[in-house]
């Protein structure tokens, strides 16, 4: 078994297959599938993933693996297969699929170095100056030197120097320093007696270790003996004491004590819902469930008790929660029940913290992982349940390459492990609900809220009427009165503002000029604190102009409603309201999110004002009023899911009110209150909405009736982009069936981002078994243009972002 099949870290079509390498004698028995190795590839040394170890190869001369990067495989047998599946279903390179499964810290980085091949005497003067007696210099030093790249190229050609790629593992395990005696106790005593009395500190330290000969944290030792490292040093130098380093985990939740919770006796509805889940756990059967439960119906308790059964059975559980719902409150519910058996993975953790949480999973020190999308790749080997909470959230779809959907990955893993997958939501996606109607997913329903609490009453306010009645503020009379009423009663209010489409743009009142980003086709957003305009796509920034760049009028102003602006007018309207504002600006600092929510929970504020961040997962008993400021801001996005998203968001936000004993009330302000998604959301009528929306989807041939594939072409040259898209459309017409509907070429809704033009083509189809093959063919045709001409082709088989 001295041959390894390796996927190399070179993401191109030609290299997207396993390469055979010889395992050198010294590494036979060490190299195993799932490990990362360092291999020669062309002139460089790069990283690769070992897929298989075998003794067969059809090649006669093989290069040798140079080194191993891991001693324990980072990919399990199952994950190796899963990566292949992801690569084939989303059309990404194998190596990209494997990278996506690993924590960021494990992604290899390369450093370029220039190596000297000749003797120093034989060097040209310029090279001698560069190397200055060294054998290796970092590549960046070339830039700083007087040498040009072409001169270096010449020297490489002459065989004087050579470029080397050094693979750098970024992973860093955090270590702590411990001190232990390096010699037996009786020797310590001898040395103690031989140490002169004046060397007080040293005698103190020796006496300490004579009494306690165990290892001790260096920091603690120094504190205890009130001394410094300087007095330790002579003892360490003489090897009387030794330093040892131990790996510690960076655990952001370590300092926290979680109050242990015990399972609630389930309600009848919960009991009915959990039984089939428990049965499939017991029978080790893969069943996909859709748990449709209104907000506050106790879905989480159903998850917790299912997980308990899995753990009792000695198996493991993965729980996915959308990033923005992964609040401290949420974490607490899982840690409260399962304590240190839980690892948490989300993007607010530092790369080091994420790596440490992942290591706990890899080492089987935890049995439950709660995390955002990428936690679906947790390297467990004995999974008993996978839960996806708020399954309708579009953040489960990765919008970067590789474009996988966590729900599909969950089902794939569920099949492998013969375990149930539970998709939970108060507002399931049309796709999932349609599958449940057809019994592809088994439907479980929770119709009632806990404590028989009723769903909060929703009042729709027509903002057009407010305007006609002379109210120019962003608060309707009703909303304002109700806020004042709650403040008086000592109850709390949640105010929701949709972030997207409602950022603050800058417009000239004279000529109507809107300030746009010079690199992207979108309006710049005004940031008050810095008095600057920023682009949210490319992070271009510029100062707020004082006069209009187009007509030189000084009436240039910002428009639109950001959370800051709402806060300001709220302050004017109700001066004694205590407001907590939660948005990207106030939660940027680590732990800020949590601090603000704790403040609100402790009733240090009357109003929680925020964006999407506050729409999910919050469970505060004292909240009796929810206000939605602009319900229709999502409705007008160029996206066939905009009605569905509006319905989901309104239902979720409304669900924050009246969750415990106090009854709740919701005010929804809108310019189009008659729209069916707003109206039906206000009546919590999911089924009617489902029926109505399904009709629309059928008429306009959208999912779940049709599959969609979005192909985006981008390039800095406008004409070239159009031309390539046109050719691709023609190619697709020639190669797909007559049933496929091919739309395009059309400019993408965002036609230019970061100085690149974007055109797209949409394919709607019901059954195209050759689609993946045809797409692969396209990539081959354009391979050279992609590699050399800066062309980008993106294929999304399940597009959610249509921008
Ligand atoms: N069987 C039970 N007995 C008593 N209280 C319960 C029970 N199950 C859940 N609860 C409590 O009811 C409240 C609502 O439950 P939970 O948050 O699990 O609902 P949910 O359906 O997950 O809500 P959402 O979708 O809005 O997040 C919580 O405070 C929870 O602790
Ligand atoms: Zn921009
Ligand atoms: Zn102007």
From TrEMBL:
Residues 543-697 form the Helicase C-terminal domain. Zn(2+) 2 binds at residues 517, 520, 535, 538. Residues 280-446 form the Helicase ATP-binding domain. CDD domains: DEXHc_priA, SF2_C_priA. It catalyses: ATP + H2O = ADP + phosphate + H(+); Couples ATP hydrolysis with the unwinding of duplex DNA by translocating in the 3'-5' direction. It comes from the Bacteria. Keywords: ATP-binding, DNA replication, DNA-binding, Helicase, Hydrolase, Isomerase, Metal-binding, Nucleotide-binding, Primosome, Zinc. Component of the replication restart primosome. Initiates the restart of stalled replication forks, which reloads the replicative helicase on sites other than the origin of replication. Recognizes and binds to abandoned replication forks and remodels them to uncover a helicase loading site. Promotes assembly of the primosome at these replication forks. This is Replication restart protein PriA. The gene is priA.
């Amino acid at each position: 078994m001295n041959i390894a099949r390796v996927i190399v870290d070179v993401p191109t079509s030609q290299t997207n297959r396993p390469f055979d390498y010889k395992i050198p004698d010294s590494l036979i028995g060490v190299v195993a599938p799932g490990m990362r190795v360092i291999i020669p590839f062309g002139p460089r040394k790069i990283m690769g993933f070992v897929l298989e170890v075998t003794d067969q190869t059809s090649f006669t001369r093989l290069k040798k693996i140079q080194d191993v990067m891991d001693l324990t495989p980072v990919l399990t047998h199952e994950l190796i297969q899963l990566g292949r599946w992801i690569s084939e279903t989303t059309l990404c390179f194998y190596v990209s699929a494997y990278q996506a499964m690993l924590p960021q810290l494990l992604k290899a980085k390369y450093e370029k170095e220039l190596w000297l091949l000749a003797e120093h005497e034989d060097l040209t003067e310029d090279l001698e100056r560069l190397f200055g007696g060294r054998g290796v210099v970092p590549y960046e030093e070339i830039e700083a030197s007087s040498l040009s790249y072409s001169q270096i190229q010449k020297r490489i050609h002459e065989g004087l120097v050579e470029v080397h790629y050094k693979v750098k593992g970024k992973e860093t395990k955090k270590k702590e320093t411990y001190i232990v005696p390096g010699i037996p106790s009786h020797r310590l005593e001898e040395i103690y007696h031989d140490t002169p009395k004046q060397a007080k500190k040293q005698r103190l330290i020796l006496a300490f270790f004579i009494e306690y000969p165990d290892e001790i944290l260096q920091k603690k030792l120094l504190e205890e003996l009130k001394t410094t490292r300087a007095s330790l040093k002579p003892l360490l130098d003489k090897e009387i004491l030794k330093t040892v380093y131990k790996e510690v985990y960076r655990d952001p939740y370590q300092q926290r004590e979680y109050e242990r919770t015990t399972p609630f006796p389930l309600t009848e509805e919960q009991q009915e819902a959990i039984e089939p889940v428990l049965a499939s756990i017991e029978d080790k059967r893969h069943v996909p469930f859709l748990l449709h439960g209104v907000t506050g119906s106790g879905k989480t308790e159903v998850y917790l008790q299912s997980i308990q059964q899995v753990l009792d059975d000695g198996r493991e559980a993965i729980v996915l929660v959308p990033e923005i719902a992964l609040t401290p409150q949420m974490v607490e519910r899982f840690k409260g029940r399962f304590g240190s058996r839980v690892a948490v993975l989300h993007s607010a953790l530092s790369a080091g913290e994420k790596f440490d949480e992942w290591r706990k999973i890899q080492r089987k020190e935890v049995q439950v992982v709660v995390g955002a999308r990428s936690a679906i790749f947790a390297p467990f080997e004995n999974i008993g349940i996978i839960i996806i909470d708020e399954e309708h959230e579009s953040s489960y779809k990765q919008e970067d390459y590789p474009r996988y959907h966590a729900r599909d990955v969950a089902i794939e893993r569920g099949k492998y492990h013969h375990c149930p997958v539970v998709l939970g939501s108060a507002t399931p996606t049309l796709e999932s609900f349609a599958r449940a109607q057809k019994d592809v997913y088994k439907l479980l329903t929770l119709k009632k809220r806990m404590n028989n609490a009723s769903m909060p009453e929703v009042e729709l306010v027509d903002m057009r009427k407010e305007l006609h009645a002379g109210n120019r503020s962003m608060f309707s009379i009703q909303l304002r009165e109700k806020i004042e009423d709650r403040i008086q009663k000592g109850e709390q209010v949640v105010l929701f503002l949709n972030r997207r489409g409602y950022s603050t743009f800058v417009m000239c009142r004279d000529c109507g000029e809107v300030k746009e980003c010079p690199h992207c086709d979108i309006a710049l957003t005004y940031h008050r604190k810095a008095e600057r305009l920023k682009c949210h796509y490319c992070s271009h920034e510029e100062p707020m102009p004082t006069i209009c760049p187009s007509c030189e009028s000084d009436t240039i102003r910002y428009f639109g409603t950001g959370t800051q602006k709402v806060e300001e007018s709220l302050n004017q309207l109700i001066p004694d309201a205590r407001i907590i504002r939660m948005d990207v600006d106030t939660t940027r600092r680590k732990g800020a999110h949590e601090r603000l929510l704790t403040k609100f929970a402790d009733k240090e504020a009357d109003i929680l004002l925020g964006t999407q961040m506050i729409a999910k997962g919050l469970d505060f008993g004292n909240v009796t009023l929810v206000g939605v400021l602009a319900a229709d801001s999502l409705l007008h996005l160029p996206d066939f899911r905009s009605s569905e998203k509006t319905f989901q968001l309104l239902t979720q936000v409304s669900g924050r009110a009246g969750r415990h004993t106090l009854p709740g009330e919701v005010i929804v302000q809108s310019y189009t209150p008659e729209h069916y998604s707003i109206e039906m959301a206000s009546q919590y009528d999911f089924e009617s909405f489902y029926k109505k929306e399904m009709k629309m989807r059928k008429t306009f041939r959208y999912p779940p009736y049709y599959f969609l594939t979005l192909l985006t072409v981008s390039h800095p040259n406008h004409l070239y982009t159009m031309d390539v898209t046109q050719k691709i459309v023609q190619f697709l017409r020639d190669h797909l069936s007559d049933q496929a509907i091919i739309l395009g070429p059309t400019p993408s809704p965002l036609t230019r981002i970061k100085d690149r033009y974007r055109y797209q083509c949409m394919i709607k189809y019901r059954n195209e078994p050759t689609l993946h093959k045809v797409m692969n063919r396209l990539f081959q045709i354009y391979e050279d243009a992609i590699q050399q001409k800066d062309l980008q082709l993106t294929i999304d088989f399940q597009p959610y972002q249509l921008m």
